[in-house]
Amino acid sequence: MAGVSRGLRAIRWIEDYCHIPEGQFVGQKVKLRPWQKKIIRSIYDSPTRRALISFGRKNAKTTLSAFLCLLHLVGPESKANSQLFSAAQSRDQAGVLFNLMVKVVRQSPDLNAVIGVRESAKQLYCEELGTLYRALSAESSTAYGLSPVFVVHDELGQVNGPRFPLYDALETAAGANENPLSVVISTQAPSDADLFSILIDDAKAGHDPETKLFLYTADENLDPFSDKALKQANPALGDFLNKKEVRRQAEDARRMPSAESAYRNLVLNQRVAREAPFISQRVWNENALPPRVEDFAEGAVMGLDLSRRVDLTAAVIIGKGDDGCWSVACQFFAPKEGVAERSISDRVPYDLWAEQGHLTLTPGRTVGYDFVAEYLAETCEKYGVREIRFDRWGIPELKSQLDAIGSKELPLEPHGQGFKDMAPALNALEAELLNGRFRHGGHPILTWCASNAVIDSDPAGNRKLNKKRAAGRIDGMVALAMAIGGASIAEQKHGHAYETRGFIAL
User: Fold this and answer.
1) Which of 319, 346, 320 is closest to 334 using CA atoms?
2) Worst-scoring range by mean pLDDT, 2-11, 203-212, 318-327, 385-394?
3) Which one in 34, 131, 253, 430 has a CA-CA gap of 20 to 30 Å to 392?
């Protein structure tokens, strides 16, 4: 193949020796598509240290990486006595690429003649070349001491947070070889703070010319259920990816908001949490009209979620208008000291929100309950808040601060955080949001909390918000749920009667 580029040589080898391992065309010789050839040419026809490949599921990204791994095991990219690895979070995921490679080998007489299989160890080897491939998982023993020349990081988007020890171990170990290559294949990660997102964003910034990015994702401005959005994220759509089935998935997500987040992440390959939030972004945005001051007459209800000192404290007030819609006003508190660091770690602009007046920063390293007490006393005295629904945590210290400022008894009403109390509150909140009966004005902190909110369910189908599983703070949504829960109970007992005594300034 004199005069043939590395990329074209790789393409010809895959099409000459590899067979389709599974699916409707199983057993047929591989015929690479133009977009697959473009990826291969870009990797091998110019210096490449790392290739990031990301598109919607079922576009054969793992199969493509299996072909590349075999290319380095016994093909024209092989190097004598070299080590090749694939890495995944779990044993099951690690076995996916290995099993595909085994199927390709056993369908090809040429490959089957030179490649040995060790099923129990998840290894492939070529005795003549001395090359060895091994599938690793985070559950296996340490990867330190290895010397990989080629690595596939499979579904790295499933890694939560910015670090993955197995990734670090293999990437640092590759330094022992002259021209190592790492291929990262995955749908996108849920958040900006996750490892795969960090790698993608670094590649977009162009910091390393030897990092190649192949990202197929639907534009955020497109109708997420349109054919154009589907095609952007799925290069195999209408080819070996069943368009009718993908179209059905889109329609399911359109009808059922709970399915939308997983659809956006797995099918549209957007950076969205796979676990459905309590309320979808689309529904939340439909309730973003500005709140009306006339809705906050006497009889407004507040939800109060006190922080664990360094977190957010959220006070959310709701008032119902004569059109049956709820206007929402928010007050958030956070400690001033360390706010820049928390802005970085939480990846949200706390400092900017404070400058814009959305967040009150209290002196010191913890939230000052004296500031919260002053706010509550002034709000209840001036605007006639009928009830303050609160999480019992931290309330003794708050009451001490209220006593210290000589505040009269406030209308505090405890609200449990378990299924018993939160289930009806969430049911009421969800119903009002789905029916477009909120005016939250797109408050940035409350909107952020809404995007993070996920739920737990018990066997009976009762629900509650779960802070531990959330991708970020959800304090504002906890407070909003308590407020609407309290308002719903009050309406059932007393009906809807608001007197015009004063209004909350928004």
Assistant:
1) 346
2) 385-394
3) 430
Rounded Cα distance, 250 and 264, in Å: 9
pTM score, two decimals? Answer: 0.61
Q: How far apart are CA 131 and CA 125, in angstroms?
A: 6
- Tokens representing residue 472 in the block: 């970020």
Domain topology for 6-215: Rossmann fold (3.40.50)
CA dist 312 → 123, 344, 350, 473, 486 (Å): 50, 15, 10, 8, 21
Q: Nearest-CA neighbor of 471 among 186, 276, 320, 225?
A: 276
CATH 3.30.420.240 occupies which residues in the chain? Answer: 284-494
| Dihedral angle, C-alpha 109, 114, 116, 117, nearest 10 ° | -40
Task: Judge contact between 200 and 68, C-beta under 8 A.
Answer: no
Helix (H, G, I), strand (E, B) or coil at 462: coil
In the three-class reduction of DSSP (H, G, I as helix; E, B as strand; rest coil), residue 472 is classed as coil
Q: What does the pLDDT read at residue 174?
A: 81
Q: Name the architecture of domain 284-494.
A: 2-Layer Sandwich (3.30)
Q: Looking at residues 79-101, what average pLDDT do you find? A: 92
